[in-house]
Structure to design on (523 residues):
């Protein structure tokens, strides 16, 4: 296993780590090799780790031996991985190559995903932190002490909040606070336990800090877009209060966004749970969906007003269609069940490309990029919808996620989510649930158009192409993360492929198409 500690990037307020970086990394390698692949947020599951590179290390609290209090170490570690071992079942490969590594004047930096780790270091770990243990290094500067996931230690999480309250630099990190935000001190910290892509900690009932786990150079859209929306006075997205990033003056290249603190919408419920609750008692969801359509359109309008927009003409539409096609081919290579539908699904992408052939232009803007019911919160008191998690699809490269795109891509993604809800749960996929999905989808589109968004019914080719692309993404996502869920996007694949067949054979079939009809104001 290879190990590289780029000492240039190792910063410590006490400059202790810079001299011990290689020994630190060597002592952590056996621990991380075992612990990292077990984490929900580890993106490279199924491929053996062949080496580590220590990109940066910062002591946030001294980790000196013999102390009664824990130390806190911030690390950025690149995990190098090979393909699956010979003879092992082939894992679903990553959808994209690892994010490009930051260049270094000392030479090329090894490729591989870069992860953010916050490590607690303690001589005598309290028993309640046993689930957080990573291991005990057998040598190096932390020899004999217990290293553990600091984001599960309320005391260390509280310290992180203190750092965010006071803007400034520490080692290789920079802590930033929005000018008019008031963050009180001493709020109790608790990690959240829901399934998520990153790791989040709630402070009191006031703030939530998301710590990005897989990092990439550049501004994370989950900071960029909420900041822009706050500037535009859009009240649909919690406005960031503080964040931290790598300090561009301490390292190379662009800052890497590492974590964002935003108001916690206490007592709110997420749209996924609300939709499942409605389905469980056969309740109507159209008024909620219509209101969610309003919220989505408001966010899109604000994004288009504050951030650059562009136009998609023939060359751009051709490129988008080609990219969708590539993803289809790549997914079918590893999910054989998709293969019989590829030819008919491809017609959706051909129709998208054809839109550019008559000289028309379509507008593109910054969008959410991974909109689904789990990214929506409805407040308990006012019943008002908010949108969260603007990171985009986590498996796509950052540059792609930050590109302007047609806003209907978010609409199509949300329509997929209503379909997911109707096909999950005990009665998933029964006729009543499917009719629930059809009405809910229509109400959402109606709300979106009412609040000024492009009426999705006026862009059926765009909608079908983006819905198909999303279903293909979901096929890969489920194959990789939740194989039991694969039938859900596969049902959509059959429907969307059937939409082509019925269009060719017998004209429009409302049961098989993108289901945009029926928005009859019953919401
Ligand atoms: N501002 C907020 N207020 C209340 N809960 C939130 C807020 N932001 C996130 N959450 C909760 O945290 C969960 C994870 O947040 P999310 O941003 O989706 O993280 P990830 O990108 O890691 O999946 C959400 O599903 C939601 O339950
Ligand atoms: O966790 P993220 O928010 O980053 O998003 C990823 O995981 C989602 C599942 O948690 C996944 O969403 C898919 O499943 C949802 C139900 O669990 C459903 O509502 C969505 O429509 C469906 O796409 C999302 O695609 C993925 O990027």
């Amino acid at each position: 296993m290879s190990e590289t500690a780029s000492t240039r990037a190792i910063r410590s307020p006490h400059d202790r780590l810079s001299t011990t970086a290689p020994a630190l990394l060597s002592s952590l390698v056996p621990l991380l090799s075992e612990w990292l692949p077990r984490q929900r947020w580890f993106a490279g599951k199924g491929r053996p780790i062949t080496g580590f590179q220590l990109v940066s290390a910062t002591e946030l609290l001294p980790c000196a031996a013999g102390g009664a209090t824990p130390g806190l170490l911030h690390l950025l570690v690149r995990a190098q991985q090979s393909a699956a071992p010979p003879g092992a079942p082939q894992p679903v490969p990553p959808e994209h190559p690892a994010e490009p590594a930051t260049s270094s004047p000392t030479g090329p930096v090894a490729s591989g995903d870069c992860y953010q780790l916050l490590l607690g270091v303690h001589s005598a770990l309290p028993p309640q932190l046993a689930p957080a243990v990573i291991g005990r290094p057998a040598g190096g500067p932390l020899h004999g002490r217990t290293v553990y996931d600091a984001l599960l230690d309320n005391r260390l999480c509280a310290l992180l909040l203190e750092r965010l309250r006071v803007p400034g630099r520490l080692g290789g990190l920079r802590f930033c606070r929005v000018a008019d935000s008031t963050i009180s001190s001493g709020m109790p910290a608790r990690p959240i336990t829901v399934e998520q892509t990153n790791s989040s900690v709630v402070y009191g009932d006031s703030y939530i800090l998301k710590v990005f786990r897989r990092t990439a150079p550049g501004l994370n859209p989950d900071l960029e877009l909420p900041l822009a929306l706050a500037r535009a006075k859009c009240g649909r997205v919690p406005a960031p209060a503080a964040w931290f990033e790598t300090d561009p003056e301490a390292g190379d290249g662009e800052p890497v966004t590492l974590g964002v603190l935003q108001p916690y919408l206490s007592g709110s419920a997420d749209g996924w749970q609300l939709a499942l609750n409605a389905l469980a008692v056969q309740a109507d969801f159209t008024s909620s969906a219509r209101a969610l359509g309003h919220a989505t359109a408001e966010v899109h309008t604000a994004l288009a007003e504050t951030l650059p927009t562009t136009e998609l003409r023939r060359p751009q539409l051709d490129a988008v269609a080609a990219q969708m096609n590539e993803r289809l081919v790549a997914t079918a290579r590893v999910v054989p069940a998709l293969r019989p539908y590829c030819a008919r699904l491809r017609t959706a992408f051909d129709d998208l490309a054809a839109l550019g052939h008559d000289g028309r232009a379509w507008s593109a803007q910054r969008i959410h990029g991974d909109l689904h019911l789990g990214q929506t919160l409805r407040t308990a008191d006012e019943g008002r919808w908010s949108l969260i998690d603007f990171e985009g699809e986590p498996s796509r490269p950052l540059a792609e996620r930050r590109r302007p795109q047609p806003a209907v891509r978010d609409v199509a993604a949300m329509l997929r989510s209503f379909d997911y809800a109707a096909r999950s749960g005990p009665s998933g996929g029964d006729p009543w649930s499917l009719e629930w999905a059809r009405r809910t989808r229509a109400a959402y589109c109606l709300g979106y158009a009412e609040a000024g968004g492009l009426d999705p019914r006026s862009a059926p080719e765009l909608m079908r192409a983006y819905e198909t692309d999303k279903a293909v993404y979901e096929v890969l996502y489920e194959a990789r993360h939740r194989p039991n869920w694969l039938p859900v996007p596969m049902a959509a694949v059959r429907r969307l492929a059937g939409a082509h067949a019925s269009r060719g054979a017998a004209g429009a079939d409302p049961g098989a198409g993108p289901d945009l009809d029926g928005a009859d104001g019953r919401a």
About this structure: The CA atoms of residues 20 and 203 lie 34 Å apart.
